[in-house]
Amino acid sequence: MNNNDLLFDFKVDKVAKTVYITREFNAGLDLVWDAFSRPELLDQWGAPAPMRAKTKYMDFKVGGRRFYAMVSPDGQERWSVQEFTSITPKTNFKMYNTFADKDENRELPGSDWDYNFSEQDGITKVYIVIYNESFERLEKLLEGFKIGFTMTLKNLEELLVKLS
User: Membrane-spanning residues where (predicted)?
Assistant: First the structure.
């Protein structure tokens, strides 16, 4: 399958304060799961260019956290904390995500992310539901989020081609 034929869908339900994203990748489930759950891979695709992702630490287990920054070319850092609340290997994980300062002090409110993975005929589908605690948080998230997230998923697509 040509990568241009892969599904990408991005929907916002402002009343429900929820974003729904579906994206297919021309790669196997094991590789796509690793790309979402291993910090050395996340850092290779997890920020829109020219930004880059930098994971300070990540403990991918229920109750574990990832503390990372998106770093701009001039060195400015925007930190986030992701706390893993549920993990079913290779099919689903959930996390609470919030911005933070460099000392890991959280900026509230945050958002709940629910990732679902499935594979059919070598195509892996990732379905993401992002629920925001407040409408203000949703509005803040949407400022450039679709463009930035689309760019990061493109980065992932390119990384998966390199790793396959």
Answer: none
CA distance 20 to 12: 6
Q: What's this model's pTM, rounded to 2 decimal places?
A: 0.92
- Which of 131, 93, 132 is closest to 109 using CA atoms? 132
Mean pLDDT of the chain: 93
Contact 91, 118 (CB under 8 A): yes
Cα 62–Cα 68–Cα 74 angle in degrees, nearest 5: 170
- DSSP labels, 20-68: EEEEEESS-HHHHHHHHH-HHHHHHHSS-TT-EEEEEEE--STT-EEEE
pLDDT in tens, 95-108: 999 999 999 999 98
Q: What is the token pair recorded at 18?
A: 């929820």
From CA 12, how far away is CA 10, in angstroms rounded? Answer: 7
